[in-house]
Design brief:
- This is ElaA protein.
- Strands 1, 2, 3, 4, 5, 6, 7 and 8 form an eight-stranded mixed β-sheet that branches.
- The longest helix is centred in the first third of the chain and has 18 residues.
- It is built from three helices and eight strands.
Length: 142
């Protein structure tokens, strides 16, 4: 089941699971030593797929002069089941629905560029390093 929640709508167990998954994937698995809890969660929309009490996939959406989709993850227990494509497609469609006409931006790990291009995103920056991994900024224009 899909959930779309503001920070203050998250149940404490959901928040703990989300932050734990982000830590497990970004910090531990990818060895990306950065401050994941960055003070932006409270103003963001949290989008996730949850079944049988377990979060399978998650992303965070923020709005400024554009819509930013980030922190896209798939629970390692459910990889290979298409949840990466599902969560990202759901996030993009939600962004289009809630913010029609706005540009959607992402910061992508460079090796995933083709994945994001398959959704119509194009590169808008050169590659740069974040926590030891090559990234590139991409956007989808309305």
């Amino acid at each position: 089941m899909w959930y779309v929640k503001q920070y203050d709508e998250l149940e404490l167990d959901e928040l703990e699971e989300i932050l734990g998954l982000r830590q497990d994937i970004f910090i531990m698995e990818q060895e990306s030593f950065f401050r994941d809890i960055d003070g932006r969660d409270q103003g963001a929309i949290h989008v996730f797929h949850k079944k049988d009490g377990t979060i399978k996939a998650y992303c965070r959406m923020e709005e400024t002069d554009h819509v930013y989709i980030g922190r896209v993850i798939v629970n390692p227990e459910f990889r290979g089941e298409g949840f990466g494509r599902e969560i990202f497609r759901y996030g993009v469609e939600l962004a289009k629905e809630r913010h029609p006409g706005k540009v959607i931006r992402i910061t992508a790990m460079s090796y995933l560029t083709d994945f994001y291009k398959s959704f119509g995103f194009t590169a808008i920056s050169e590659e740069y390093d974040i926590a030891g991994h090559d990234h590139i900024d991409m956007e989808l224009t309305p």
